[in-house]
Amino acid sequence: MMDKNRTLLALKRDEEINDLTGYLTGLGFDPVSVCDGARAIELAIQEVPSFVIADIDLPVIDAERVFQILRHNPHTSNIPFIFIADSVTDIKGFRTGVDIFLQRPINLDELSSRIRQTLSARKSSGPGSKGIEGRLSQMSLADILQILHLNKKEGELKVSSGEKTGSVYIKDGEIYNSSLEGIEKEKALFRLFTWDEGKFEFTPKQVTATKKIRSTTGNLLMEGMRQIDEFRKKEDQFPGKDRHLRCKVDPNTLPKGLQPVIYEIIQLVNAYPKVADIVDRSAYPDYEVYTTIVSMLARGILDYRDAEGAAADQMAQFLTTDQAISIREKILSHYTGLNVNYGKIMLISTSGSLASEFIKRCKVIPGFSMNSKSSFQQISLENPLGEISAIKLYGGMDITLFSIPAVKNMGPLWRAFSENLIGVVLLWDTEGEGDLSELEGAKKDILAKKRVPALHVFSGEATKEAGARYRSALGLKPDEPLFKLNKNDNGMIFEIFYSLFSSLIKDDYVR
Amino acid sequence: MKLFPERFYDSFFVNEYGKIESLRASRYNTCFSIVLMSVEGGGKGRLADESAGRQVMHRLASRVVESVRNCDVVGLVDERRIIVILPEADHFGSLMTVRKLSRAVEPISDGTPFSVILTQATFPRDGRGFGELVGTAASRAKLQKESLWERLRLRDKLFWEVMGTLTASAPSGYNDSTFEAGGDRPLTEFFIEQLDELIVKEISRTPQKRGILYFSSKKISQRLPLVKNLNAAGAFSTRVFLVGEPEENAWEIKTATPLIIDDQRLRETFFTFYLNEGTGYALICKENWGATYACFHTADAHLVEGLITKFQSEYSLQETLG
Fold first, then answer.
1. pLDDT tens, residue by residue, B249-259
2. pLDDT digits over A381-403, tens only?
3. Hey, what CATH topology would domain A321-506 get?
4. Is residue B236 within 8 Å of residue B207, measured between CB atoms?
5. Is A419 close to B174, i.e. CB distance below 8 A?
6. For labelling, which of A125, A220, B37, B45 has a CA lying 20 to 30 Å from the CA of B24?
7. How many residue pairs from chains A and B have C-beta atoms closer than 8 A?
8. Options 3.40.50.2300, 1.25.40.420, 1.20.910.10, 1.10.10.10; which CATH number does A6-124 get?
């Protein structure tokens, strides 16, 4: 049994024993002194002291060895040691923060403060106050919960990362509840699962919290991990936290029997339009809230009401939602495969500068963006090659513009990269008139493999005779339009794309 | 007399089995593949009327039955074609079966007037009915016959002989073509790098799609535009290999595997081979005097696959196609 005031002085110098005995008695301790290591071990085991002050050069068994022997004994392993030596000595197993090393001459004030420090540290980490502690980078929360579950532990598991702290309450190894910044239950637990860095600390104690989580620990862990994996995979499809939403339908007209999360989100959207607020305030786990929002956006129950939403409105003026859905469905129905999220329009032009000019003018289309991830920004602008821009259509669907020169020896490019092709735009100007046969050849070759609408666009002013000449050279049918793209005529760009999309929706194109 | 081995079925059976397999795959939302083996050559008459033809078909049937898995179904389509139905096999699984069968049957046709063409098709991407799949595989066989790989008999050459033949050839079709870049040519050397960038953009556009990309360079450097593009592309399923000599300073790229190969020929000729389930593209560039390049490129997936197979085999690399 440990005596709180009992201290063991193992010193070989009598004068030091006398000085320290008097000093420690004055501080309220009950010092017992010995002159050799063997006796020190014997006394420490008989009556465990609150700390040991030992001269490093003890006779019979030196202090380092005494320290190691007592550390390996479970009854004495927690005793702090205060080593006294004439010079700095390396002590094997020295526990920084627990043991103290003092060099002669001894400063009694320093000794007193160090003793207080070590005893208070020991008190806060005394037996029973903490079960397990460690870092999340070494052991994940899921692993800790599994261990606690298997050992049927009871207590509170505190997890901290940065300035945030959360708790998981466990009884008989089952998770009773979890809390994090005012959030409770599965939602808080699944958020804690996402923490990779931070500390955990399990304190065994009686849990009086009400059982708010009904699932078994095994199911919770599996579901939590699944939701995190799915969340990470689909993160880019979810709306940004700063986006604002609005409800497009009257909540009273919603049918009964839908998932409760839908009703909750609609109520929240009316009060807190920001996505981050909706996700935080919903009682459902984050992943469920995000997937429900995405599905409600796709079904037209919700809508964006911010700047991006304004872009969508602009797009709606260019293409109605029905038309956008039809184009999307057309692409999805004809291209099997996982997550088809784009359709490709191939831009085949007689010169790079012409293609570049055309793309620049496409900027007037709502939702149009240039592909900025290029190592050759300047070259890509002058001689665009491959995917150079995209138009955001609807429900995560992109229409990409893919540029290729109209020369026969570039044939392998349009053959190899015509996946998800939904249209071809053939572009030429007066200078490129001589290459019309190349353009015609490219068109025939592409259309022989993929049935897609082809549009013919001449850049510049064309006389009636020239127009007739072009029509003949490109084998245009009488009802096929020949677009003339004049400078500053942005309306024509809309007409070109509108014609392409209309053909795509109307006819049995693609494939 | 029993002409064919056990587990080798007639056309009626394989046809019925194939239809059931496609129904099963569509109901359970799984995939399956077929491999079509077409015997070319011999007289113009029926193959069954020639004793040599009968013998070749018989030996092919035995070898195919020996080479495939127990769950695969092998049978006749007609007198010149054998079909293998591969349950649960995806596009890349069927490509590996084609490789395996190709090796197994090669000695049989050697020294005979017959040649064997192996093609594959996978449900559902190549067709939703069994007949449609056989049709796709048959049309691929037709394309394969026209492929440079078969026409120039590249199969019988070594990898670098093939590379030399291709860069020296002058095809000018839409499928295979040559161009020159650098110097005072209309196409600059950046055009070649733009082509590589185009491929990386394609990969990152459909990151879930499986495929394989071999990219060779004199030196694998983190300053290469392709490496920069790969770093910016995020995670994807295509396996990317960077071939060449290493740079002095160690660096790491998460989305690609460096293949350190010290070969003089890689300093003169560099290549990009890209193959996925929908497409194939290869670009081979030979550097000439004055930083000019003679380039060959192709969209012929059979040729690309052949190049990858030869490259993997001659440099003892892992046999993988995605």
1. 777 788 899 99
2. 677 888 888 888 766 778 899 99
3. Rossmann fold (3.40.50)
4. yes
5. no
6. B37
7. 97
8. 3.40.50.2300
